[in-house]
Design a protein that fits this description.
It is a single chain. The chain is α+β, with helices and mostly antiparallel strands. Helix content is about 35%, strand content about 20%. It has 9 helices and 9 strands. Strands 1, 2, 3, 4, 5, 6, 7, 8 and 9 form a 9-stranded mixed beta sheet that branches. Strand 1, helix 2 and strand 2 form a beta-alpha-beta unit. Helix 3 (about 100-115) packs across helix 4 (about 130-140) and helix 8 (about 265-285) runs antiparallel to helix 9. The two termini are about 30 Å apart. Bound molecules: glycine.
């Protein structure tokens, strides 16, 4: 596999989607502009909801971007090797333009031909009833039927509360036996770390009113999401997202400030990972104009800073140190 940095992967993705006619747009702010119901931009499609619903985007009907996302719902799990509160979501979008055939073919082409992932380690999944997506994978891309998984609503129907949603087709990467749980039946969809979902093609064709009532959208859309940090962990063949080049640089700086080494003491590793994650979120929040306060998103920022500072003390770091990160 090619040796690629996160910066290279980010640019390769955007260039590839541009070659398919998608206009490159800037990431929106982490402060949602059109959604008062949530504190942060949580997904690549989030700032684009009005266009998935039919509004005209000034850049056209095919877009690509890398969206800054913040999800703090599982903040208490941060510190383990797989949770982040801040991540970059690579995405390509169609507003009533291309649909399943192109989205699936491009995701496969990018991963196997541009990035150079081994096709034998990739497994697509489709929504239970989505025979059309199944046939595209099977007949057009040439994936044998027994390598295509059908999953139900929990895994293969993408929705984020109210708003545009639809069945999806994910691509899993087999990271190898050493990451597996070893249990009989461990396969794609297992909760262990072996089969990692890296790309999600959402066929956005419904509007959920928030009460679970679905209406067909007038236009059929594509919303894709691929976490840059996850993709980088696969391409760079490292144990976790905290070992990819960008996070590793920060992680090493935390270790330097704490006069310690990573992977020597699990308790310290939790603090190292937590600080590494929280300083990224805090920096992006502040750069988008959020200040620490006692409520709302400012309170979340304050909480992140306090938690990071406390874990710095646990590592024995004296004085202000977050600014150095
Ligand atoms: N909106 C698709 C995803 O975030 O996976």
């Amino acid at each position: 596999m090619k040796q690629l940095t996160s910066a290279q992967l980010r640019e390769m993705f955007l260039k590839f989607m541009e070659s398919k006619g998608c206009a490159r747009i800037q990431s929106a702010s982490v402060i949602p502009e059109n959604d008062p119901t949530v504190l942060f931009t949580t997904a690549g499609m989030h700032p684009l909801v009005p266009y998935l619903m039919g509004a005209k985007h000034p850049a056209g009907t095919r877009l690509t971007d890398v969206q800054k996302c913040i999800r703090t719902g599982d903040i208490d799990d941060v510190g383990d090797p797989s949770h982040l509160t801040f991540f970059e979501m690579l995405g390509n979008f169609s507003f009533g333009d291309y649909f399943k055939h192109e989205a699936i073919a491009w995701s496969w082409e990018f991963l196997t031909e541009v990035v150079g992932l081994d096709p034998d380690r990739l497994y697509p999944s489709v929504y239970l009833e989505d025979d059309e997506a199944f046939d595209i994978w099977n007949k057009e891309i040439g994936i044998p039927a027994d390598r295509i998984y059908r999953f139900g609503k929990e895994d293969n129907f993408w929705e984020h509360g109210a708003g545009p949603c639809g069945p999806c087709s994910e691509i899993y990467y087999d990271r190898g036996e050493k990451y597996g749980c070893g249990k009989p039946g461990c396969t794609v969809g297992c909760d262990c770390d072996r089969y990692m979902e890296i790309w999600n093609n959402v066929f956005t064709q419904f509007d959920n009113d928030g009460e679970g009532h679905y209406t067909e959208l007038e236009q059929k859309n594509i919303d894709t999401g691929m976490g840059l940090e996850r993709l980088a962990s696969v391409v760079q063949d490292v144990d976790s997202i905290f070992d990819v080049d960008t996070l590793c640089a920060l992680r090493n700086k935390v270790c330097e400030l704490a006069h310690t080494e990573y992977k020597k003491d699990e308790e310290k590793d939790v603090s190292i990972r937590l600080i590494t994650d929280h300083i990224r979120s805090a920096t992006f929040m502040i750069s988008d104009g959020i200040m620490p306060t006692n409520e709302g998103r400012g309170y979340v920022l304050r909480r992140l800073i306090r938690r990071a500072a406390r874990h710095g003390r646990l590592l024995g770091i004296q004085g202000p140190f977050l600014v150095d990160l």
